[in-house]
Amino acid sequence: MKPAVIEDIIIEYETSEDDWYSGLIAAESSWRGMADELQELHYLKGAKFINQLKLIIYYGEFTPVKGETNIFSAISEQSEDFDNLLNAARKAVEHGFRVYILPNPRSCRTADFILEKKGILGLYDLKTVHGKGSVRTQLLDSIGQTNRVILNMLSDYNARLLASDIKAYFETNQDALEVLIFKGKKVLSVNRIQVQSSDFNRVFRKRYEK
Predict the structure, then answer these.
(1) CATH class of 2-209
(2) Which alpha helices (DSSP H) does 72-158 contain, by range?
(3) Sign of the CA dihedral running 101, 142, 186, 132
(4) CA dihedral for 154, 156, 157, 159, sign (positive or negative)
(5) Cβ neighbours for 66, distance < 8 A, ≥ 6 positions apart
(6) The pTM is what?
(7) Distance between CA atoms of 163 and 142, rounded to whole angstroms?
(8) CA distance readout (Å), 80 to 29, 49, 76, 89, 123
(9) pLDDT tens sequence for the chain (210 residues)
(10) Domain edges within the chain
């Protein structure tokens, strides 16, 4: 038995490693390039979405980032946003993730990372928070790219306001699954079930300010 991830649910199904690798070999002949394969993610859900992430990892021409552990990139280190992406990637690695940095083709809106942890894959857009600017605006800007967002907090943002911003994001985007927050050495994951709790604001502030 092998785990398969469907959105936020882990189920069990019968398969074999040979079946999976045979599928990859077959897929290689139809690989259309990174831009097209990333765009395909917008039309997939569940197991097909996860399999597409695996396909991109295997055939996406990722290379290890020099001097880093568990960070792989499909963009040049000279890219304008590379340092910002790398900073967040390092934090993800500190919390047990393997990170794949994605390119940003002009043909479609795409996310920034594929994160993998204990065999579970997720597609994330990165929002770096500087100063006191509205996090809500940044979260809403991610809609249409992916349903999971990383907030890399580089400023002392008010916890009460942040809770309100995250709640507004989930209310606006019915497909939203997770907001992953990096704050210093700490990581917080917020999902829809938590946000729908009547006690969300208090519990979130306690976690964030701890």
Answers:
(1) alpha beta
(2) 82-94, 135-141
(3) positive
(4) positive
(5) 77
(6) 0.85
(7) 17
(8) 32, 29, 9, 16, 21
(9) 333 333 333 333 334 444 445 455 445 547 889 999 999 999 999 999 999 999 999 998 899 999 999 999 999 999 999 999 999 999 999 999 999 999 988 767 899 999 999 999 999 999 999 987 789 999 999 998 899 999 999 999 999 999 999 999 999 999 999 999 999 999 999 999 999 999 999 999 999 998
(10) 2-209
Measured CA to CA in angstroms, residue 4 lies from 20, 46, 122 at distances of 12, 9, 13
Side chain identity at residue 199, one-letter code: D
What is the C-alpha to C-alpha distance for residues 157 and 56, in angstroms, rounded to an integer? 35
At 54, which amino acid appears?
A: K
| Amino acid found at 76 | S
Q: What's the chain's length in residues? A: 210
Which pair of tokens denotes residue 168?
């507004």
